[in-house]
Amino acid sequence: MPEETLEESFVIVGASLAGAKAAEKLREEGFTGRVVLVGDETRRPYERPPLTKGFLTGKDPIDKAYVHEEDWYAGHDVELRLGTAATGIDRARREVVLADGERIPYTRLLLTTGASPRRLDIAGADLGHVHYVRSADDSERLRGALAEGDKRVVVVGAGWIGLEAAAAARGYGNQVHVVEPEATPLHRALGKELGEVFASVHRRQGVEFTLGDGVAEITEDSVRTNDGAELPADVVIVGIGAVPNTALAEQAGLDVDNGILVDQALQTSDAEIFAAGDVANAHNPLLGRRLRVEHWANALNGGPEAARSMLGRDVVYDRVPYFYTDQFELGMEASGDWAGDYDEVVYRGKDPAAYVSGDSDDLEFVAFWLKGGSVVGGMNVNVWDVTDDIQALIRSGKTVDPKRLADTGVPLAEV
Question: Which CATH superfamily is domain 9-116+243-310 in?
């Protein structure tokens, strides 16, 4: 008798934005086999930007963050396993092992396990008034602590999470003090020039900064810095980066280095296992190097591309990294990945130095980071509908004339 043909089973571990969009894409592409989406949180998949934006500020309910309506999963025959941790991958038997001992067979497996907040390793780091923001529950607890107002809030870390949380805290009428070991906020992400702009935006709203200093100890009512400053603190928010959740991949023997190593098709060192989102350290052929991107757009776009790759489609994931933020009167979008590796910054519109010095209230400009004469990054601040042109410049790799780049009379498409 011929062998029975088993139903194809695609399993996604990580009920995240990337995981949910991957499941959606599998059904859109006509996959009729079994789709199982496993997540250790009890909430259905949601987007994470609102956790330090609209939901944390109280402007939006958590319902706006969900990727799909509650009945979408059953309606599309996606088995959603919530509150269920995957504890192992048996590559020989092609099975995912769950915490309760259940084994789910897979023909293809996608890991969208995301990242976890980097933790402080100092005295007092585990006190009850110390908050990290990664989950909706984290954000809900923090919102409750901030909403009363008139609290003394110390934010550890002036990256994206730290600054957005600082803006939210100040919006509730709290006193806010940010501690950052670098010389400016967002120093590693943007460089000193634009980091000063963000510092000025916050200072104008009453946020205080201690820069060039780290945190040594947290007590019940204060934060002590390495230089000995004592900062009163009723609430402490920590935003010092994230660590990719690679434990499953490591246990399974997949290649791991600052994330799960994947190729341009988001395929791991095992041909039947893929990875996307925060956890994936992917080769980007456009940039010619590996990149692990923790921003929303990477999860939104990477999950579906991983799904297409699982289906055997020809996938080249070479997106230009994109991210955005809203802090007080500053709204911005940024494209590219320069990470401090640039030769010069060119401003289109007014140089924001006048805003930093206090001589101007104008905060509308586009900044371009150039390396070797080519645009490697661009950020539009309170200027809209230019992202496609900025990304096109980055993708082209062409040498540009800085004067034309700065001239608002020359359309970006013609630079």
Answer: FAD/NAD(P)-binding domain (3.50.50.60)
